């Protein structure tokens, strides 16, 4: 797939566009842009980061008015491979069923961007990348980043691509936090926003689960105080346990029961030992071991921390509605009935805050027993809702329908 | 009867409501079902419309149709809206199903400059006759549910409603008496026979001195 964004001329009046340089190829990993060379990113922790790299994937074509761009924000362990195969696992894109020609997020109609978040490990600057000051991986020298910092890195990417205004920002879970942060901080650059299965602040329970994961990683001797890359080691076991614990929170009891029940794994009777007797154990171990092949342990620490720190009300005097005062953005808030990690009650709080500023908001709670993961799965009601909302928003934006693909 | 956006005719009482709404205004439709009225108002009156609907099926149908609708209800979701957020707030055939109709009515006129409210009239002569002669709870096309399954927990007569408006300092700008199919009977609901002849009633309300804040 060719990348039309790279053939677009950069807007000459952008401070950063002159300093952005493409270091990647158009195939395989997708483009990587070095940004912030002249104007470093001011992080919420007070540190400055620059230059930094943003790796992203782009699909479709930016129209002449540059008004049809959709930004997709990925979740904690997601990445930019939203609609094409993952380079490490070979699995289809994580929203392959939603993004593509003729699909709900129609790449014949929209120009779709999905950047790897700051702090992650699929090409954007994060703790495993080389610190230009030392020539070695950042490790724990990487500054603690926030959801706001992730968004500001994306702002620089859009500046470089010459996109003043996004047609839509869409994301689930941590992606939804970025969506809310985008709409709150840059309402003039967002026409519509779809926060899915998310919250305006990370709950105590969710911080607690993240802490379990971080402690599992840090308890692994191979973590080496965060310096494992320089010491030629990888904290496989700790990261796998972190993933196993987290994975349970993405599902639901009915979904687990339907999938596994108490069935045994490749055996007729209990072993009276600590092998994976049950299918559910075997499944979790598999989830853990495949995860460590594609994810960096320190990135997991940094990104979970960014989610823990997220509190949109705190930035606005403790009143969530103040984050959206006068917002012109059209919102579509989506939650799932069986999601206990980001329950409907949290989405409803966002809706109430948006109502308090008389914002244009739709809110749908989709019936599903698949837990938090439902937003990644085939949920026709969710897809119909998103399709209808995007169509309605596109009509208000004056975007033409896609021409039939030849 | 005008055709609805999908070529379907809209209910005659909804058409009457639509006629009361000024073009280009801001409208909140509470209990908007699948958004039929909102869609009609958007297509023919270019309103900036929002909806609240209790049933998930209704909300999904409306949002999938490109309308701005949230899942919620009149009792819990009106308090958040700021005063004067809308030109019109519409509550069609829903007031009698709310837990606190008085507070709902106050909220309607707090967040809307104008409220359009319709409800079934329990004082309708057929209802009275069913109770008086048959000794049964009334059922008719406007009150179709049996007593054990009705969502209507706060039924009232036209006279009761007018008294509540008076109590709250709400001004009745316009009113209509409707038959059991929603057709106007050519008589305002403030007419002395309205409470007897109206199967349902429709009111256009504005804030008086007491209700304004």
List the keywords.
heterodimer, A: 406 residues, alpha/beta, Rossmann fold, Rna Polymerase Sigma Factor, Chain: A, 2 domains, 9-stranded mixed β-sheet, two-stranded antiparallel sheet, 15 strands, 32% helix, 16% strand, globular, disordered N terminus, B: 213 residues, 7-stranded mixed β-sheet, 8 helices
Description:
The complex is a heterodimer of chains A (406) and B (213). Chain A is an alpha/beta fold and 406 residues long. Chain A has two domains: 4-202 and 311-397, Rossmann fold, CATH 3.40.50.1820; 206-306, Rna Polymerase Sigma Factor, Chain: A (Orthogonal Bundle), CATH 1.10.1740. Chain A has ten helices and 15 strands. Chain A has helices at 4-7, 147-161, 174-185, 204-218, 236-250, 253-259, 279-294, 297-309, 344-356, 380-397, and strands at 21-22, 32-35, 41-42, 48-49, 52-59, 69-73, 99-100, 105-106, 111-115, 130-131, 136-137, 166-172, 190-196, 330-336, 360-366. In chain A, strands 1-2-5-9-6-12-13-14-15 form a nine-stranded mixed beta sheet, with helices on both faces. A two-stranded antiparallel ribbon of chain A has the order 3-4. The longest helix of chain A is centred in the C-terminal third of the chain and has 18 residues, at 380-397. Residues 1-19 and 23-27 of chain A have low confidence and may be disordered. Chain B is of the alpha/beta class and 213 residues long. Chain B has one domain: Rossmann fold. Chain B has eight helices and seven strands, in the order H-E-H-E-H-E-H-E-H-E-H-H-E-H-E. Chain B has helices at residues 12-20, 36-45, 56-64, 74-77, 101-111, 125-134, 158-168, 194-197; strands at 26-30, 48-53, 68-71, 86-92, 112-120, 170-178, 200-207. In chain B, strands 3-2-1-4-5-7-6 form a seven-stranded mixed beta sheet, with helices on both faces. In chain B, helix 3 (56-64) links the parallel strand 2 and strand 3 (68-71). Chain B is globular, with a radius of gyration of 17 Å. Chains A and B meet through strand 14, helix 9, strand 15 and helix 10 of A and helix 3 and strand 3 of B.
């Amino acid at each position: 797939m060719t990348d039309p964004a790279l053939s677009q001329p950069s807007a000459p009046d952008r401070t950063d566009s002159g300093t952005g340089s493409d270091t990647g190829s158009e195939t395989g990993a997708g483009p990587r842009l070095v940004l912030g060379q002249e104007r470093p990113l001011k992080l919420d922790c007070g540190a400055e980061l620059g230059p930094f790299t943003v790796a992203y994937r782009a699909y479709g074509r930016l129209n002449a008015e540059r008004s049809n761009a959709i930004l997709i924000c990925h979740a904690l362990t997601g990445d930019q491979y939203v609609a094409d195969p993952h380079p490490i696992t070979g699995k289809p894109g994580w929203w392959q069923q939603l993004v593509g020609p003729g699909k709900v997020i129609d790449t014949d109609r929209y120009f779709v961007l999905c950047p790897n978040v700051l702090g992650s490990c699929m090409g954007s600057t994060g703790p495993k990348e080389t610190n230009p000051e030392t020539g070695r991986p950042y490790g724990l020298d990487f500054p603690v980043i926030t959801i706001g910092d992730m968004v500001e890195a994306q702002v620089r990417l859009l500046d470089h691509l010459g996109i003043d205004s996004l047609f839509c920002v869409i994301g689930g879970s941590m992606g939804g936090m970025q969506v809310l942060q985008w709409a709150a901080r840059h309402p003039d650059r967002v026409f519509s926003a779809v926060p899915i299965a998310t919250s305006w602040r990370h709950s105590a329970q969710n911080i607690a689960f993240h802490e379990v994961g971080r402690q599992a990683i840090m308890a692994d001797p191979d973590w080496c105080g965060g310096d494992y890359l320089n010491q030629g080691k990888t904290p496989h076991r700790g990261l796998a346990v972190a993933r196993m614990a987290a994975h349970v929170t993405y599902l639901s009891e009915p979904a687990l029961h339907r999938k596994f029940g108490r069935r045994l794994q490749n055996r007729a009777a209990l072993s009276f030992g600590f092998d994976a007797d049950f299918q559910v154990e075997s499944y979790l171990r598999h989830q853990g071991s495949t995860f460590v092949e594609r994810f960096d342990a320190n990135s997991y620490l940094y990104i979970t921390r960014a989610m823990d720190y997220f509190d949109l009300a705190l930035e606005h005097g403790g009143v969530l509605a103040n984050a959206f005062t006068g917002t012109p953005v059209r919102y579509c808030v989506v939650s799932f009935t069986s999601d206990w990690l980001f329950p409907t009650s949290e989405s409803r709080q966002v809706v109430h805050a948006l109502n308090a500023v008389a914002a244009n908001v739709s809110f749908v709670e989709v019936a599903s027993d698949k837990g938090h993961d439902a937003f990644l799965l085939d949920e026709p009601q969710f897809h119909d809702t998103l399709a209808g909302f995007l169509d309605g928003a596109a009509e208000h934006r004056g975007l033409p329908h896609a021409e039939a693909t030849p | 009867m005008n055709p609805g956006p999908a070529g379907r005719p809209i209910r005659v009482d909804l058409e009457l409501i639509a006629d009361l709404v000024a073009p280009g205004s801001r409208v909140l439709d509470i209990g908007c079902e699948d958004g039929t009225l909102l869609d009609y108002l958007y297509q023919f009156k270019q309103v900036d419309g929002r909806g609240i609907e209790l049933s998930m099926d209704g909300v999904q149908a409306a949002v999938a149709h490109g309308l701005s609708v949230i899942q919620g209800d009149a009792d819990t979701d009106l308090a958040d809206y700021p005063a004067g957020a809308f030109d019109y707030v519409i509550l069609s055939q829903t007031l009698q199903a709310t837990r606190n109709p008085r507070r709902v009515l106050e909220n309607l006129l707090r967040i809307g400059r104008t409220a359009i409210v319709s409800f079934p009239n329990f004082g309708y002569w057929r209802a009275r006759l069913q109770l008086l002669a048959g000794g049964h709870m009334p059922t008719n096309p406007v009150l179709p549910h049996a007593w054990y399954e009705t969502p209507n927990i706060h039924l009232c007569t036209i006279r009761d409603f007018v008294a509540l408006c008076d109590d709250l300092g709400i001004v009745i700008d316009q009113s209509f008496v409707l038959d059991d199919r929603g057709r106007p009977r050519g008589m305002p609901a403030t007419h002395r026979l309205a409470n007897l002849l109206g199967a349902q009633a429709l009111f256009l309300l504005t804030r008086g001195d007491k209700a304004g804040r």
